[in-house]
Amino acid sequence: MKHALKPSQYAILITIMLTASVGDTLLSRGMDQVGQVDLHHLGLLWHALFNPYVISGIVLLIGFFASYMTALSWADLTFVMPATAFGYVVVALLSRFWLHEHLSLYRWAGIFLIVCAVGFVAGGPSRTEDPAPHHELDLMDSGAGR
After folding, report:
1. Which has the closest alpha carbon to 54: 28, 87, 74?
2. For residue 39, what is the enclosing H or E element?
3. Which residue stretches of the chain are H helix?
4. CA 70, chain centre distance (Å)
């Protein structure tokens, strides 16, 4: 399967992968410092908003959201999700080596299967491969061709 993407589009996909992975990891680190939040300790959520790791994670996840919307403006969801699936590996590596979490062989196997299997999802046709000009879409939406 061949996708003709511009360098800027590759950059958006990499940005999605990295901002989501690093943002989630920063949120995890910050919430580990804040402690367990439950119905009896909801005030800890307010306290969490002042944790530098949580703030950094939120900023990166806002960047992720902006990049994600950008990618969805020129590609189908079934292309964007698989194209950024390597983020699972990034999260696993950050969790293992920065957060010092234990990842069992089963988790590594699951991550490997996910990354391998997303190729099947990305195998179909998408707007990414054959974009229709905007003026044709406008005519189709207006009913002018009927």
Report:
1. 28
2. none
3. 7-34, 43-48, 52-74, 77-83, 87-97, 105-121, 134-142
4. 12
